[in-house]
Each structure stands twice: as C-alpha cells, then as structure tokens.
TrEMBL record:
NCBIfam families named in the record: P_eth_NH2_trans (NF028537)
One Pfam assignment: EptA_B_N
GO-annotated biological processes: lipopolysaccharide core region biosynthetic process
Organism domain of life: Bacteria
Membrane topology, as annotated: Multi-pass membrane protein
Identification of the protein by name: Phosphoethanolamine transferase EptA
Localization: Cell inner membrane
Organism from which the protein derives: Sulfurospirillum halorespirans DSM 13726
Length: 518
C-alpha cells in the first residue's frame, strides 16, 4: 500500500503542491531559520528543516483532503496555492506577519489603501496564482481511484509522514525544541499554515456573540468655569519617533517645532498596537494595552465620557480608515477620507470653535505618514528631502529614497502641528488651551528587511511601537511640570486619564498613576 503513493496521481499532486509551497512560498521563513541556525552552529536543524516542513505539509494536505471528492480536491489545492502565493508576496516583500489582527486591518482597508498596495509585482503574483489555479481546476491530469482507495492512501501517507516527523523529533527533539523556543516568532512565517490558522481565529471572533454595550463613568462630574477649556488632539498616523528632529534625529524634519520653546516632547512614548485598527480604539479606552481586546470596543471610551459631562466634541477625520468607531456616538463628525492633504483638517477651524462657547474637545485625525505611498501625503512645497520614492512599489527605490520620502511626511506633520498651535494661541484670550499630538503607531522603513507596520506587538521592532508625543499648554505651569517628566516611560495608556484631568472630570474610572499631569 505504501508504494501506491508513487502511483497515485492524487498523491503526486499533493507532493508537488507541498514541494512548491515549501520551496517557493516560504522564502522568508527559511532565510530567517537558516540565519539563526547557522549562527548558532545548529547545522542538523538547518539541513533537516526543509525535509520536515515538506513532511508536515504532506501530512496536512492529506488530512485536509481525507474526505474530499474529486472536485473538492482540486478546489482545495487551488485555495492552498492561492493563499500561499499571496501570502508569500506580503511576507517576502514587506516582512509582514499575517495574524488575526492583520485580517482586521485588511477588512477595514478602504479602496484607496488597496489601490496604494497595487504594484506590478503583486499583479504578477496574482496572475501566476490565477493561471496555476485554472490549470489545476480544468486541465491538470489528476486521475482518482475509488473513494475507499483514495481514503486508504491518504490515511496511510498521513500516518507515515507523521511517524517520520515524530522519529526525527524523538531523536533530535532537544535541538528542535530549544531552537523554536528561542525563536518562537518563526512559526508565524510558515506559509500558508499560519495565515490560514489566523483566518480561522479572525472568523471565529466575528461570528461569536457580540458583547453587550457597556456604559462607563456614570458617576462622572465636571465643574463649570467662566473661562472655557479648548483641547485639540492631533491623532497622528504612522509616525515613528526616531525620525523626529525633536527626538534628536540628525535631519531637520521639525523645522518649525524645533524653534518653539513652548512645547514638551516626550522621548519615551509607546503605542498600544502596531496598526490603526488596534491603537486608535485602545488609546481612547479606559483599558491599557495589556488588557485590550476587540471585545473592549463594546465599552464607552473617553470621547463618550467627555460628551456625557457636557464637553462639546468635534471630530475631523482625514484618515482613510476612519475613526475606528471611536466617535460613532458623536454628532459633529466630518470624514474627508484621506483624499486630500491634512491641512483640510484645519479648514473652518475657527468658525467651528466660534459656533458655541463651551468646553471643547477637538480631534484631528491625520492621514499623516501612511505608506507605502508616502509621496502622496504632502504637497510639493514639502519635498525637502530628495531623491524621493514616488511610487508605491518600494522595491524600485533605495532605502535612502524611501526614508527621504517618509521624512517629507514628518516635515508636513510638523507644519500641521505648528499651524494648529497658532490657531490655539489666537484663542487664548477666551480659552484655556491645550494641544496633544500622538501618533497611533510607528513604521518600519526597510530595517532588517521589514517595511510598513502591523507586526505582532511582542516581536514588532521598536520603530513600530515607539511613537512621537508632544504637548502644548497655554498654562505655563502645566508645561513646566510635564517637562520635568519628559524622559520618563509613558504610553497611550495615559491618554484616557490625562484627558480627564484636563477637563477636571471626577470619576471612579480615573487612575492617578496613569495621569501625565499628576
């Protein structure tokens, strides 16, 4: 029966699929594995890993196709191949890890962001996957035996493959266990196994019963002052602290803000996540990063708390991903959709402020430095650093060009922040004013072969988690008090409680140890 493996056309199809996926769709996995294994002189693991992955893929395919009919067999191979080819494009090109959170990002991506990702290379991958799929569906000469024979063959090959893997592990398990314990992230690059497992987790999260909506801070109160408060929060997009001159970067990316002596830049500020879909709802929530999950979106956030105490909330959004449902219960929300530059956020700023004199919280959500089309994020007047990468196909550009283009987006953000401070200063005779700027997450620009953002937090490089954060206060005492703590470790966990203090809201939800101003 074992030798029927070599005669069975279905088994040969499984073998060729496993071989193709292992060798062509796992380049990043093997490059990382070989790098670690050879640097640790673990030569046996480096030599045996491709063979083990092949056996595991053969076992997995036989398990998945154990009860498959003829049509389902072909269709299943197509799904696996298509998933493997598409996964390899994003993993190999950007160093991406396709986990459940990445699927959340994908399904929240709008048409503009999708078009920004379209490159000739991606179209080539999709074209190749389509041609292979059509050939397997309609032309591949795969002859099937009876259902009983096919089932017996698959079951036997499945058992033999697993026994061979088990045999290697029994003899060399110490080498494998210690290696993958030390490099646990490697499993996330196994394609398409990890992306497909992540997709099942994503689907499960979507279909399971939704948690009940929960109101918070029902005891919140706020004093009324004759002079009102005006707090503007600029919610940045994809800005990393390393490229801010205010942080010590050796290029003048903050030509305007660097001249100011009335702002406080926090040197050590961490994001809640590495993607907008996580960081934005997380930073506005009462839950810190370690307690955050998608289910927590069913709770009210700081915007709701301020609104229920009578604070006027104005939300202006130029991010193509929108407000991530943070402002869904607010009435004064305008979304520009990222189709223009971020100066649209300041359009009618004064007119909106003048409509009503009361404590006001304004959120300006940027398109910021969103990639890979960095060149679309700033007007030509801000093309300061050259040469630039004026294409979404980053592989056509050197790292210098990519960094230059990204730096131009930071210089434009510098302008937006400075203009907003100017607007606030014009209102200081009537309002006690504050400006906060915090980016949602950072960005990788090719360091160690990683681009963009969205890696799992535990293995994400610091550039995806270390974000710029700065404050402006009309109250000099607040500015000086925060300046003393500028080098301390803070994070987006601090935003909820700091905003409570800025508006003098009293509630049992307040945690003084997370208040930047305490």
């Amino acid at each position: 029966m074992l030798f029927s493996f070599f005669r069975s056309q279905s088994q040969r199809a499984i073998l060729m699929t496993a071989l193709g996926i292992a060798l062509l769709c796992n380049i990043t996995f093997f490059s990382k594995l070989f790098h670690y294994a050879l640097s640790e002189h673990n030569y046996f693991l480096a030599l045996s890993a491709p063979f083990i992955l092949m056996l595991m893929l053969i076992a997995l395919l036989n398990l998945l196709l154990l009860f498959a009919s003829k049509k389902l067999f072909r269709l299943s191979l197509v799904v696996l191949i298509f998933a493997g080819i598409l996964g390899s494009y994003f993993i190999d090109s950007f160093g991406a890890i396709i986990d459940a959170n990445m699927y959340t990002n994908i399904f929240q991506t709008d048409s503009g962001e999708i078009l920004d990702l379209l490159t000739p290379k991606l179209l080539l991958y999709v074209g190749a996957a389509t041609l292979i799929s059509l050939w397997i569906l309609f032309k591949a000469p795969i002859r099937f035996e009876s259902f009983t024979q096919e089932f017996a063959q698959k079951a036997l090959v499945l058992i033999v493959s697993l026994l061979m893997v088990l045999g290697v592990y029994m003899n060399f398990g110490k080498s494998y266990s210690s290696f993958f314990r030390n490099h646990n992230e490697l499993k996330m690059y196994i394609n398409p196994a990890f992306p497909m497992l992540s997709f099942t987790k994503f689907v499960y999260k979507k279909i399971k019963p939704k948690p009940v909506f929960t109101a918070i801070a029902m005891d919140a109160t706020r004093p009324i002052h004759e002079k009102k408060k005006l707090v503007v929060f600029i919610l940045g997009e994809t800005a990393r602290a390393r490229n801010f001159a205010l942080f010590g970067y050796d290029r003048p990316t903050n030509p305007l803000l660097s001249k100011r002596d009335d702002i406080v830049f926090l040197d050590n500020f961490a994001s809640c996540g590495t993607a907008t879909a996580i960081s934005v709802p997380c930073m506005f929530s009462k839950f810190g990063r370690t307690n955050w999950s998608e289910e927590k979106e069913s709770y009210e956030n700081i915007v709701d708390v301020l609104a229920k105490t009578g604070v006027r909330v104005i939300w202006r959004d130029n991010n193509s991903g929108g407000d991530k449902k943070v402002a869904k219960r607010m009435s004064d929300v305008v979304n520009y959709g990222g189709k223009g530059f971020d100066d649209v956020l300041l359009r009618d700023f004064q007119a909106n402020i003048d409509k009503q004199y009361k404590d006001t919280f304004v959120v300006l959500h940027q398109e910021g430095s969103h990639g890979p089309t960095y060149f679309k994020r700033y007007p030509d007047a801000f093309k300061t650093f050259t040469p630039t990468c004026d294409t979404q196909d980053l592989e056509k550009c050197t790292q210098e060009m990519i960094v230059n283009t990204y730096n131009n987006t930071i210089a434009y953000t510098d302008y937006i922040i400075n203009e907003t401070i100017t607007q606030l200063k014009a209102n200081e005779d009537k309002y006690d004013t504050t400006l906060i700027y915090i980016s949602d997450h950072g960005e990788s620009l090719g360091e160690n072969g990683v681009y963009l953002h969205g890696l799992p937090y535990m293995i994400a490089p610091e550039d995806q988690k270390h974000v710029p954060a700065l404050f402006y206060f009309s109250d000099k005492a607040k500015r000086e008090a925060l300046h003393v703590k500028a080098n301390e470790r803070f994070s987006q966990d601090n935003l909820f409680h700091t905003l409570l203090t800025l508006f003098e809201v009293k509630t049992s939800e307040y945690k003084p140890n997370l208040d930047l101003l305490r």
